[in-house]
From TrEMBL:
Designated gene of the protein: hisD
InterPro entries, per database record: Ald_DH/histidinol_DH, Histidinol_DH_CS, Histidinol_DH_monofunct, Hstdl_DH
Catalytic activity: L-histidinol + 2 NAD(+) + H2O = L-histidine + 2 NADH + 3 H(+)
Enzyme's top EC category: oxidoreductase
Keywords: Amino-acid biosynthesis, Histidine biosynthesis, Metal-binding, NAD, Oxidoreductase, Zinc
Pfam families, sorted: Histidinol_dh
Organism of derivation: Bacillus yunxiaonensis
Residues holding substrate: S234, Q256, H259, H325, D358, E412, H417
Active site: E324 (proton acceptor), H325 (proton acceptor)
Name of the protein: Histidinol dehydrogenase
Length: 430
């Protein structure tokens, strides 16, 4: 892993280079995704069967997983796994319950009632990856906030393999209260959720991470359906002073690098000796990592160890990156929070590693990536709700602001707007 020691401007250039590298998207992939989306929109199930055979090498006769199959999967997985799911579920619910918004009504002025209604979305589609790795934790993180919001129907969609669907994913779906499960993956699955087919219902919103084809398909269908965000590839920034534990830091960097060769793992430290030790630890730990080939390519392509003069510079660099995951391995991590402007999720101290957030602590692990933490937030209960405003005015209350509205409408050249106000006060009407 390359260690960069330079002045701040030099290190900033390195950071920008890594960001551009990670964000490179082949135009050919976008074109392929667009063709898939159009085909599913037009041919529906016929296209899904064809793409599943071509891409997943599986010939299906149906897409929906039956309740009996769900129950068999639940019964087949080890009790320790179910216990872990239940503990994670409890923590996710306790955290996300605090995010629920309330409707309100405002009657501060006589003759005026204002308010806001909060309603859950009716149908949500949850995409769960099933390619190089299966992620039961993603089922919980996407479905449980939707349940808390009160979503009427949660539809899960996940790629099949020659043996069907990973039973651990189906068990997680049962624990999370998913209503329907379908075995379709990739861009074609996103198109099916966006437009509906003979087998798969159209949804109001699609959430969940996936590969580049899934991400670009979500971008393609946005507008026909709402989406959470364009998530991926995974990324982590670890900030450390001289008190950092090199073995912990290396392990945490590799925890993201093993996701995907496009993942980004960056350590920013004030200590050159620690930087060198982290580099040695990465090489040592790669030797025994089952997904070492993926992790090594990720580290070589998108990894970096940056040595800076101060923690202030480290925080500044981190804000430039706006990482998905930010770990603070420093002496007093809580004191750094005021300096962190942009990060999806922040992990404080050596005993709050990123996988704690992925699986167990409760905050959502569906997070903004590729610098979008500058304006996106983690997935939350808010993502599964919509708001409507309402107004009531008496004639007297409207009369008090009549001329203001007319003045504004006429200034904008919208005479019908002005007329809609004036007509209510003509001829002494009551």
């Amino acid at each position: 892993m390359e260690i960069t020691c330079a002045d701040y401007s030099g290190i900033l250039c390195k950071v920008k280079q890594l960001r551009e590298q990670a964000n490179t998207i082949e135009e050919t992939i976008q074109q392929d995704v667009r063709k898939i989306v159009v085909s599913v929109k037009e041919k529906k199930d016929e296209a899904l069967f064809s793409y599943t055979k071509a891409f997943d090498k599986v010939e299906l006769t149906k897409f929906q997983v039956s309740e009996e199959e769900m129950e068999l999967a639940y019964q087949s997985v080890e009790p320790a796994f179910l216990a872990a799911l239940e503990e994670a579920k409890k923590n996710i619910i306790s955290y996300h319950e605090k995010q629920k918004r309330q409707a309100f009504i405002d009657i501060e002025k006589e003759g005026i009632i204002r308010g806001q209604l909060v309603r859950p979305l009716q149908t949500v589609g949850v995409y769960v990856p099933g390619g190089t790795a299966a992620y039961p934790s993603s089922v919980l993180m996407n479905a449980l906030p939707a349940k808390i919001a009160g979503v009427n129907k949660i539809v899960m969609i996940t790629p099949p393999n020659c043996e069907g669907v990973d039973p651990h994913i189906l068990a997680a779906a049962k624990v999370a209260g998913v209503d329907e499960v379908y075995t379709v993956g990739g861009a074609q699955a996103i198109a099916a959720l966006a437009y509906g087919t003979e087998s798969i219902p159209r949804v109001d919103k699609i959430v969940g991470p996936g590969n580049i084809y899934v991400a670009l398909a979500k971008r393609e269908v946005f507008g026909a359906v709402h989406i959470d965000m364009i998530a991926g590839p995974s990324e982590i920034v670890v900030i450390s002073d001289e008190t950092g534990n090199a073995a912990y830091i290396a392990a945490d960097l590799l925890s993201q690098a093993e996701h995907d060769i496009r993942a980004t793992a960056i350590c920013i430290t004030t200590c050159l000796e620690l930087a060198q030790e982290v580099n040695r630890e990465i090489e040592k730990q790669l030797m025994s990592l089952p997904r070492s080939e993926i992790a090594r390519e990720s580290i070589n392509r998108n990894g970096a160890i940056l040595v800076v003069e101060s923690l202030e510079q480290a925080f500044q660099l981190s804000n430039e990156i706006a990482p998905e995951h930010l770990e603070l391995h420093i002496k007093e991590p809580m004191t750094a929070l005021p300096y962190i402007q942009h990060a999806g999720s922040i992990f404080l101290g050596p005993y709050a590693p990123e996988p704690l957030g992925d699986y167990m602590a409760g905050p959502n692990h569906v997070l903004p990536t590729s610098g979008t933490a500058r304006f996106f937030s983690p997935l939350s209960v808010d993502d599964f709700m919509k708001k409507s405003s309402f107004l009531f005015y008496t004639k007297e209350a409207l009369g008090q602001v009549q001329q203001h509205i007319v003045n504004l409408a006429e200034k904008e050249g919208l005479q019908a707007h002005a007329r809609a106000i004036e007509i209510r006060f003509e001829g002494g009407e009551k």
